[in-house]
């Protein structure tokens, strides 16, 4: 069971967060989100989830972060 509670884009410049406006695809090992226009700079993708690989939800949400930096020109 995969349950994503929120996806955000975090600026590496000032740590400001921009919430994803829509989740397009939410499949195992695939997350496609739509984000509003971003100012030029570097960003990190962060998601909050309560899902596990099984059918049991975690008691507390956990935060995961993509290892790669996303750059907007």
Key phrases:
73 residues; mainly beta; 5-stranded antiparallel β-sheet; two-stranded antiparallel ribbon; 52% strand; elongated
Question: Would you write up a description of this structure?
Answer:
With 73 residues, the chain is an all-beta fold. The protein has one domain. It has no helices and seven strands. The strands form two sheets. Strands 1, 2, 5, 6 and 7 form a five-stranded antiparallel sheet that branches. A two-stranded antiparallel ribbon has the order 3-4. The protein is elongated and about 40 Å long. It starts with a strand and ends with a strand. The model has no long low-confidence stretch (mean pLDDT 84). This is DUF4469 domain-containing protein. It comes from Carboxylicivirga mesophila. It holds the Pfam family DUF4469.
Whole-number tally of structural domains: 1
Q: What series of H and E elements makes up the topology? A: EEEEEEE
Mean pLDDT equals 84
User: Rough shape?
Assistant: elongated
Number of helices: 0
Q: Can you give the helix content as a percent range?
A: under 10%
Q: Which strand-content bin applies to the residues?
A: over 45%
Q: Rounded to an integer, what's the Rg over CA atoms?
A: 13 Å
Low-confidence stretches: none
Main sheet record = 5 strands, antiparallel
Number of strands: 7
Which structural class do the helices and strands define?
mainly beta
Q: Give the N-terminus to C-terminus distance in angstroms.
A: 36 Å
What secondary-structure arrangement, pairings included, does this model have?
Blueprint: E1 4-11, E2 17-19, E3 22-27, E4 30-34, E5 41-49, E6 62-65, E7 70-72
Antiparallel strand pairs: 1-2, 1-5, 3-4, 5-6, 5-7
């Amino acid at each position: 069971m995969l349950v994503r509670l929120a996806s955000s884009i975090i600026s590496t410049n000032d740590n400001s967060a921009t919430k994803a406006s829509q989740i397009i695809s939410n499949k195992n090992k695939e997350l496609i989100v739509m984000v509003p226009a971003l100012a030029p700079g570097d960003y990190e993708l962060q998601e909050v989830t309560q899902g596990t690989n099984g059918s049991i939800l975690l008691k507390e949400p956990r935060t995961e972060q993509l290892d790669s930096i996303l750059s907007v020109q």
